[in-house]
Amino acid sequence: MKTCFTFLSLLLLAVFTKQATSQPYKIQQPAPGVEIISQGVIDKFTPYTFCSEPPRIKAMSQLAPAKLPFNINDIRVKVTQRGALVDIPLDDDEHLYGFGLQIGTFNQRGLRKKPIVNDNPLNDVGYTHGPTTFYVSNKGYGILINTTRYTTFYCGTTAMNISGKPDEKTTYGGNSVLELYSHKSAVSHYVEADVPGAKGIEVFVFSGPDILTALQRYNLFSGGGTMPALWGLGVKYRVKADFKQDEVKKMANYFRQNQIPCDVIGLEPKWQTTAYSCSYVWNPEYFPSPQHLIDSMKLQGFHLNLWEHAFVNPKSPLYKPLKERSGNYLVWNGLVPDFADTSAAGTFARYHENTFVKEGISGFKLDECDNSNLGSGHAVWSFPEHSEFPSGLSGEQMHQVFGLLYQKTIYDIYKKRNTRTYLDVRASSSFASPYPASLYSDTYDHQEYIGMIVNSGFAGMLWSPEVRESTSIADLMRRSQTAVLSAQTLFNSWYLTNPPWLQIKIDENNHNQLMENAKQVEADIRKLLNFRMSLVPYLYNAFADYHFKGIPPFRALVMDYPTDKNTFNIADEYMIGKGILAAPLTEKQNERKVYLPNGNWYDYNTGKKFTGGQTYTIATSFTELPVFVKEGTILPLAKPVENVSPNTKFEITCCVYGDKARGTLFEDDGETFDLEQGNYNSLTLTYDGKKGNLTRSGSFKNHRYQIKNWEVIK
Amino acid sequence: MKTCFTFLSLLLLAVFTKQATSQPYKIQQPAPGVEIISQGVIDKFTPYTFCSEPPRIKAMSQLAPAKLPFNINDIRVKVTQRGALVDIPLDDDEHLYGFGLQIGTFNQRGLRKKPIVNDNPLNDVGYTHGPTTFYVSNKGYGILINTTRYTTFYCGTTAMNISGKPDEKTTYGGNSVLELYSHKSAVSHYVEADVPGAKGIEVFVFSGPDILTALQRYNLFSGGGTMPALWGLGVKYRVKADFKQDEVKKMANYFRQNQIPCDVIGLEPKWQTTAYSCSYVWNPEYFPSPQHLIDSMKLQGFHLNLWEHAFVNPKSPLYKPLKERSGNYLVWNGLVPDFADTSAAGTFARYHENTFVKEGISGFKLDECDNSNLGSGHAVWSFPEHSEFPSGLSGEQMHQVFGLLYQKTIYDIYKKRNTRTYLDVRASSSFASPYPASLYSDTYDHQEYIGMIVNSGFAGMLWSPEVRESTSIADLMRRSQTAVLSAQTLFNSWYLTNPPWLQIKIDENNHNQLMENAKQVEADIRKLLNFRMSLVPYLYNAFADYHFKGIPPFRALVMDYPTDKNTFNIADEYMIGKGILAAPLTEKQNERKVYLPNGNWYDYNTGKKFTGGQTYTIATSFTELPVFVKEGTILPLAKPVENVSPNTKFEITCCVYGDKARGTLFEDDGETFDLEQGNYNSLTLTYDGKKGNLTRSGSFKNHRYQIKNWEVIK
């Protein structure tokens, strides 16, 4: 009897092995709810090998018990002459999100996406500043193909020619294009990931039970979401590229004299002696005394941020030490440092630390670390995909992680010095959650910029919908609103003499011909920026949730309401922290349709209460913010400050939405990594229907929040 | 002394070997002026392995002696873990053309191009219906990377990090974007071709001495340019997709009753029982008696053409025999036949021959043999790149040659039956010159359509700028002019009940609400189409030059004037045959700038003479054709016929441009391959300043041309 059973088992195993061509593969479990399937020869460098921070195992173990909607063994992995192919089961009613900072699409079901790094990701092919080979499903799990190689995902679009009878269910049978395209049903029950060139592959499976938990696991496994310096949540203003030292000072004075909030001033290319490629040397003609500038800025409460890219000019002191540790191609005649080589990264970091960070530079803008525009044959720059790097990475692979490694290199400087920062960066990748960097783009479609806030939450990334020029006052105001409701409020005036709110037209602006109503527009912008400053404590708390729990501070509605099918395709609304829903408008609208999920919601501007599960048309003026607050929320709003210093005390008004409500705040020094040692406080705000109460737990001594007021909105 | 010299040589050799990592490679010379460099393990299938026709060695040996502007050994080939990399020398003042039927760019110098097959090739990344890994240089040579793998060309955009001092000449040193992009000089002295996945590579080098000779060698090596059926040079009209048999007949009658030239009527999807995917079975509801239709059409002088694509529906008689000989993925639930497998191609061909060709179907429209739109994540169809085919081709490789193999499969049917055809096709590839197929596209930008005529000549391809809907009468007329001046004059009315010249608006058209001036517009169109019919003998002669000498019938000015730098970037004028220069207008223009190269030229419409080497502004009405005739040309224009039958006699007026002039005509049966056995006549027309003379040589008995008249234009 026993023999017979074993024989049958062997037979079944043989059948099984034939079907799943390349099973069995290895499965490891490196953290609770995370499994790694691996097959074949894995590349020496994968996105995961570059992780700066260890996984937050403890936090992960506190999440809901791991659950997958399919048997993990149903994932098929095949390694062929072409590369690796991974098939992941897909249900008929499943919806997919992710692939990094996607610009043109949201729900990726039914699409083919190739998430590769690109500086001008037009169309919807998958190109982006921040590609990830990672997606999540509304069924509650995430899949990451751990490779730096260009990977194409077919999200349920491929049907196989299998033996036996044809599948009648998926027969189209139409004989016109109209019939063809009206046929929307699924054609495949797999997502397929095609990785040409790979000799083996790792698949990371992040379990739910729900989409948010899967993302929390991803972010925590990456080392936890970033915790930017507290001042990073204020306003950043980048001055005109050809400003000289005195003009920068003048601009700084303008902000303080006019009580317009600003925490960071950014300098653009000409601070260097040569920028394309970079010397990383102060330009004495423009900045004769940089240390004086840094110090005087600091006195006025400004942090200074320097533009740069990573291509090293022959005139740079970094050229000689990096020459042999760079790729075999040049960009703008500059070296491409091999940041995967710790020695090259160390050389780059040491120079930056000694020359800039020690002197008080608070951050950098890492430009052009993406690849040049693949959407047009013109403007070709960056290194070719066939480049070879000393580490062994190819150009293709380096493209996918160049921005990531650049962030890591700069982040490591600040981490070592126990100082937090907040960077601008134009490329990122998988496992980037711990980096305090906000992505930006030269593209400028406002609706796409809103969509990128929504998508950023699926990617462990932050996105900065920067304000540059505007076609109208409406455009300026709506863009500024979106900037206020994003991970970084940034005005990038690199080609404007005056702030855009004094003159929206570029030419007039640069001839100091201000708009007639400049002062009125300035006042309106001030209102918006003051709202941003009011929101800083709430945002900071949302970032603490990102850091310690992996909850994205900005996230699509489907993440919080995964069973509400109305949210599956909403790409223009998003949650900020626990209780705010934002629904930005563009210059084309003075009102818009807003879907509010189940529960009750309050219009922040009018206090009007709305029943959820429905769509409303809501008008919002230029000086209001298009946000809704969830019933049961205590929104702790600060009295606006012009900038955040280490000793800033926030005077808080607790806005209570509903009969009973709750809120939290996070308190620490705001600028070191001491929070990792537990040196912080958690504040809980409660309102029981009659009065508000604050409890504070933790060991951080220097209290930052003073509750001044409770305001109940019913 | 001798020892010393040898030692030095060895040293030099060592240095050389180090630099050119993978030399020496093998060099073969398969034909005069063609060399093949080969290195590593060559793929079993390359574009060249699919060539239907042998190279025309004799014709090649009659070309000018081969000459290359560089030493062939300076081409570098490297095979690495990533794939193959080929570096081809590039001069500072060199200009490059090709990469197939490029849609957005012309002079490819300074660009990165990835010529891969795609159905909606937006932007300029290199995607096209007809990619080739082939380019030519104005210095007089052509390079073809003989691979079906996706290949990226960096046309002088990559600079290497080599040992020694940095190259001061290529230092940018600017520190602003403005300075950066104003810097236009070459950064590299190589074109680099990156072929990921290849384990070896073949490089075909086509020598000049000039660009046209290099192209002639390419076309002749491919088997010679195609010779379409003579009737193919007339007008093709595709009827509405849901037309039934009687409606098709009615439309045919309309043409004959109104004396509007038409040679071919095309049926669209609904002639089949199922089209997405295809059954290849007549739809009895729409076409109850196809044989009757074919025969009655023939009586009226029409050829019938059938739309189809290659994805085989489960309901098709071809399904069962092809099931095991198809790729492992389905498209629209249809099989993807492995056309690289001769048995699969044979099955497909036999069915088509027996069911359609034997019954009198004169040609096919091969739709959707390109890949779905990579420029958008939406509308995903076609097989994935990781598909596997029984022949061993991957999906990526199959995409690059699917349209080519489809053409070959259909062409072989007709060739076997000694009957010529003229096909429509939506994808092609390298070495396609012998196929009688004109490419078409769903894109519809008129300026791009003109540019594609110009680029087609660099690719061994023909392009059909079809007329569909129009935004205005001007748009209709200008598009029709371009169609008349192209390889195929095609009106594709697949969604129009009436011809577009009776109603340009789609809705009104389909409700039979004709324009008030419909008859006038019809008369204007008739004029243009009559001009086309007048031009048929001249065009046919140009095709004979394509077939026997490899001279593209439609070609960029730079091909005929390679030393005139004014032609290097002209993408909107082209030569037709020996003596006509076309400069089409779009709906936006009533006049345009026309550059006329050295020599004297005549405006065809006014007879006005122009001195070349200059640019003129020329107005052209809707019913004129924007063409110029080169001094010394005899243009043999026929009295228009409504269609071309085997017995059509053309009454020719010889238009003589200049004091002394010359022209040629080609005479054969127009519909068989007997011309390959020399069964044709060459006619030479000369004008000595006083009178014209015709000489005829050859063995073809049935004279087709009757010279009626000599008209001298001075």
UniProtKB/TrEMBL annotation, chains A, B:
One Pfam family it belongs to: DUF5110
Domain DUF5110, first and last residues per copy: 652-707
GO biological process annotation, one example: carbohydrate metabolic process
Molecular-function annotations in GO: carbohydrate binding; hydrolase activity, hydrolyzing O-glycosyl compounds
Boundaries of every Glycosyl hydrolase family 31 C-terminal domain copy: 550-635
Signal peptide as annotated in the record: 1-20
Record keywords: Glycosidase, Hydrolase, Signal
Hydrolase as UniProt keyword: yes
InterPro entries in the cross-refs: DUF5110, Gal_mutarotase_sf_dom, GH, Glyco_hydro_31_C, Glyco_hydro_31_TIM, Glyco_hydro_b
Chain ranges of the Glycoside hydrolase family 31 TIM barrel domain: 226-541
PANTHER family (UniProt xref): ALPHA-GLUCOSIDASE, ALPHA-XYLOSIDASE
Family membership: Belongs to the glycosyl hydrolase 31 family.
Identification of the protein by name: DUF5110 domain-containing protein
Organism for this UniProt entry: Mucilaginibacter straminoryzae
